[in-house]
Write a structure and sequence with these properties.
Blueprint: E1 2-6, H1 11-22, E2 31-38, H2 51-78, E3 85-92, H3 95-106, E4 110-115, H4 128-136, E5 140-145, E6 160-164, H5 169-179, E7 188-195, H6 208-240, E8 245-251, H7 254-265, E9 269-274, H8 284-295, E10 300-304
Parallel strand pairs: 1-2, 1-4, 2-3, 4-5, 6-7, 6-9, 7-8, 9-10
Antiparallel strand pairs: 5-10
Helix pairs in contact: 1-2, 3-4, 5-6
Amino acid sequence: MRILVPVDGSPHSDKAVETLAAASNWLNPDLIMLLNVVQPLESFMPFKVDDSMITREQEIIAKRSKWLMERANFLAGAFGASPLVVDYRVKFGHPKEVIVNMAARRKYDLIFLGSHGRSGVERLLLGSVSQAVLELAPSAVLIAKTDQGQGESPLSRFQRVLVPYDGSVYSRDTINWLCQQNFGPQTKFHLVMAVTDFEKIEKLDLTEEQEMVVRSQWTMIKQRAFDILEDVALSLGKLVGNENVSIDAIPGDPREIIYQEMEEFGADLIALGSHGRTGLEKMMLGSISLHIAQHAAIPVLVVRRMTNVELPFDDELVDDEPYSDEEIRSGREDRPPFTMF
């Protein structure tokens, strides 16, 4: 697995790196790439950038490379003896464009993205950036919740995973993705499906015969939902044991059900699929996954099925430099401890 981790040096970004380290019990990457995107100074200047500005950019890059190397060392230690390369890059450009295009070009399997809410020149990775990555990146995206506004919250250990499931191929992709990871027997999964709410029949003003038909249909739908969930549960049961996988089919609005089950199950990760469509073609599950990713109080994994591999943004940058064979790509005498593009 290849993991791309956009970072910016903020406390929120550091918390996201710590959250990734806490996932070392189930993620088994062979490459982790730490990416810091620097907004070019000329984008803020109305006139030509002089030599002093260029020197200032070099100073910024050198400073950022230092903390990138520190976090690379931290992650390498957290993942222990696994055959892992932890690398890093400093790149110029607009964050959402650089992140999405780099993920597409280098074929990363997972983008591990921290989220928070600042804006302006020091814009971090919540809002337009995270939304663009969720909608356009050709990979799974894990949004690590790092908001510390209401006090320090414990890091997620990813041991209680809530999986909303709707029977579509997109939900099946999510199950397949989870089954490829290294979740141990201590992990518990809870599969939940939202079904049509026929229980509020008294509001439909039906005759007795009509009410019987509706109730019969609702019973059939719920039983079918359980049949589907049981089949999926067996796949996850091979990872963690059938006793650690629970299922439920609940009538109501999918979003409300997800938040309700998140609280009752005590989930520390929500994993769901997305159709990966945008604009007028956005499907219902896509809007739900985006809403959950933006508003849930815990980390959210969104697995997307892509229909093309084209770069979403115009980008003529070419990155042909091979990755380091060292465990950690750090400062060496024959090159500076960063890469400029």
